[in-house]
């Protein structure tokens, strides 16, 4: 085997293992919270691409829920049953720094309630 072929085989093997060991989307799933109008608003992002929004710990009665997808630093709310225009998607960039998760809207969000709770807001990770 020539040295070029050997190098190519090694490079392909390393690339295969790097892709296999990558963390997927990199989005930090889990529960994050902010205070909004004197109430605690919690958003839980699950590994399966679902999310739920809860006020004041009312886990049995979530205010909103839906599905999301992540592409690099963009999170798109594909569905949101808490919005009047539930079928309207909205995309936000996200930045994770330690326990903080900050969202910025890309373009505009047709759901004003979602925009009020996300656009420019920094959430803090919480343990449930």
**Mean pLDDT, nearest integer?**
83
Identify the quaternary structure here: single chain
Form type: globular
Please write the CATH class name. Answer: Mainly Beta
CATH superfamily: Uncharacterised protein family Atu4866
Q: How much helix is in the residues?
A: 10-25%
Number of strands: 8
Radius of gyration: 19 Å
Number of domains: 1
What does this entry look like structurally?
This protein is of the alpha+beta class. It has a single domain, classed as Lipocalin, CATH 2.40.128.290. Helices cover 20% and strands 40% of the residues. The protein has 2 helices and 8 strands. It has helices spanning 3-20, 112-118; strands spanning 30-36, 39-45, 50-55, 64-71, 74-77, 90-97, 100-105, 122-126. It has an 8-stranded antiparallel barrel. The protein is globular. The N and C termini lie far apart (56 Å). The model is unreliable at 7-24 (pLDDT under 50).
Spell out the blueprint of helices and strands.
Elements: H1 3-20, E1 30-36, E2 39-45, E3 50-55, E4 64-71, E5 74-77, E6 90-97, E7 100-105, H2 112-118, E8 122-126
Features:
128 residues, alpha+beta, Lipocalin, 8-stranded antiparallel barrel
Short description:
This protein is α+β, with helices and mostly antiparallel strands and 128 residues long. It has 2 helices and 8 strands; from the N terminus they run αβββββββαβ.
